[in-house]
Specification:
Layout (H helix, E strand, L loop, with lengths): L1 E13 L2 E13 L6 E16 L3 E14 L18 E14 L3 E16 L2 E2 L5 H13 L6 E2 L2 E17 L4 E12 L2 E12 L6
Antiparallel strand pairs: 1-2, 2-3, 3-4, 4-5, 5-6, 6-9, 7-8, 9-10, 10-11
Length: 204
């Protein structure tokens, strides 16, 4: 599967507050896979509710919308196997605590909110008309044969957690890590990353 993406985001800082608004478009293509497209929009802002010399607690609000042209979440031939609702909306309240030391900077965060998504019915074989026709013919004599995955609409709680650290070994070399967990729709996503950065001029 090949995913082609374009997006744009506008950010604004006003005093201690920061705001953003953005939009994106994705096209999905691949061999023996139904083509798909996605539009997404997002907006939000955050403000520090607590600050000290090195620490900060920041809270905010995020609004998220995206929608796919086709529901291809299943795993039969030409389905993509990825969460692809026709409309998804979530409103989340993120909170992040950040501490900046002489050599170590770290942060932890969490978010909680509500979501609603809708999925259209999807044929079992969306790209193969011959197989789909055979399935429909079988279903005419056997009502237990499934020819299409059902549509659905769901609402519920959405949330996530994040963590990161970065340590300055010397002025030029830094090591760090990132972790995130997100729940959207009815699936969970976990990411983890370790990295090293070398700054060639030794100043930053």
């Amino acid at each position: 599967m090949i995913r082609t993406r374009g997006d744009a985001q506008l950010e604004l800082t006003e005093g201690l507050a920061n705001f953003y608004i953005g939009a994106g478009y994705d096209a999905y293509n691949g061999e023996q896979m139904e083509q798909n497209r996605e539009f997404e929009f997002g907006a939000g802002g955050a403000y520090p509710v607590y600050r000290s010399g090195t620490d900060e607690l920041r809270g905010g609000l995020e609004l998220i919308y995206f929608g796919y042209g086709k529901n291809l979440r299943y795993f039969t031939l030409a389905q993509g196997g990825y969460f692809s609702p026709q409309s998804y909306f979530a409103a989340r309240i993120p909170v992040t605590y950040t501490s900046r030391g002489e050599n170590l900077t770290w942060s932890v965060g969490a978010s909680l909110g509500v979501q609603n998504y809708k999925e259209d019915s999807s044929p079992v074989f969306p790209q193969n008309a011959a197989l789909q026709s055979q399935l429909v013919a079988l279903a005419a004599n056997d009502p237990t044969v499934v020819t299409a995955y059902p549509s659905q609409s769901q609402s519920g709680v959405v949330g996530g957690a994040t963590g990161s650290f970065e340590y300055n070994i010397d002025p030029a070399l830094r090591v760090g890590g990132l972790f995130s967990f997100d729940k959207a729709g009815d699936y969970n996503e976990t990411r983890a990353l370790l990295y090293a950065r070398y700054i060639f001029n030794g100043k930053q």
